[in-house]
Design brief:
242 residues, alpha/beta, 2 domains, three-stranded mixed beta sheet, two-stranded antiparallel sheet, 7 strands
Length: 242
């Protein structure tokens, strides 16, 4: 004999809008706006206009409700809320899970990064998704092609900019493989001037001025740009920050 039990419902819970308006839908929608087909089914457009280039900026932990309640601290970003539909994070909404949903274009149940910590199948060990473990292959744990890989297969060049220490980490490989990784995290480094122009089909040139509290040789900054496709000539000026 069984009896139905009504579980209490948290009235503040927001159901993830998977395949409609969630973090996992952002990059597929960007691909659609760029004019490339990444998925077997047409992804939601999220209201993104057609464009040749897109920049996706992620601010960890900054949701629409937090932004609305502190609008005076971020007037430009909060001004974008009017007339827009907030997207949802997945469940759980922890950083590692959300980053992987964004990078793979799939919900947590598909990519397998299910929380800050997850028990490693067949063991008594626990995987910390932010620190990862050298004993766990991220391409096995998260075996699906990422959204960056699918964009690359469609001929779209993508770049991920993050702290240098995260290059090659398990979480980066699981969520962002397929994109060129550019590490930037030195305090006091600023790009104060940039000129970019087209030399010819598939070739561009750039002149950049960087101000830094602890300047490195120009070769160090040039090495960070080595993986950018189409950047054929770079002139750099590095000066102490004033």
């Amino acid at each position: 004999m069984t009896a139905g039990v009504e579980a209490p419902v948290d009235q503040g819970f927001v159901t993830p809008a998977y395949a409609d308006c969630s973090l996992a839908d952002v990059l597929p929608a960007v691909g659609r706006a760029l004019g490339v087909r990444m998925e077997a089914e047409e992804p939601p457009d999220l209201g993104l206009p057609e464009a040749r280039h897109y920049v996706v900026l992620l601010v960890d932990g900054l949701g629409s409700e937090l932004l609305a309640s502190h609008a005076d601290d971020a007037p430009f970003l909060s001004g974008l809320l009017e007339g827009s539909l907030p997207a949802t994070a997945g469940v759980p909404s922890t950083t590692a899970t959300s980053l992987t949903s964004l990078g793979t274009g799939t919900p947590p149940g598909s990519h397998g990064v299910l929380g800050y910590t997850t028990r490693i199948p067949g063991t008594t060990s626990v995987l910390n998704a932010l620190r990862w473990s050298k004993d766990v292959d991220p391409t096995v744990w998260q075996a699906q092609p990422t959204a960056f890989s699918r964009l690359a297969a469609a001929g779209v060049h993508t770049t991920v900019v993050n702290k240098r220490e995260f290059e090659g980490s398990g979480l980066t490989v699981a969520s962002c493989r397929g994109a060129v990784f550019v590490g930037v995290d030195r305090p006091g480094e600023r790009l104060v001037d940039l000129h970019l122009w087209r030399l010819g089909p598939g070739h561009h040139a750039a002149i950049a001025v960087i101000a830094a509290e602890a300047p490195q040789p120009p070769q160090a900054y040039r090495a960070r740009l080595a993986g950018l496709a189409g950047l054929s000539h770079v002139t750099l000026e590095v000066r102490p920050a004033s």
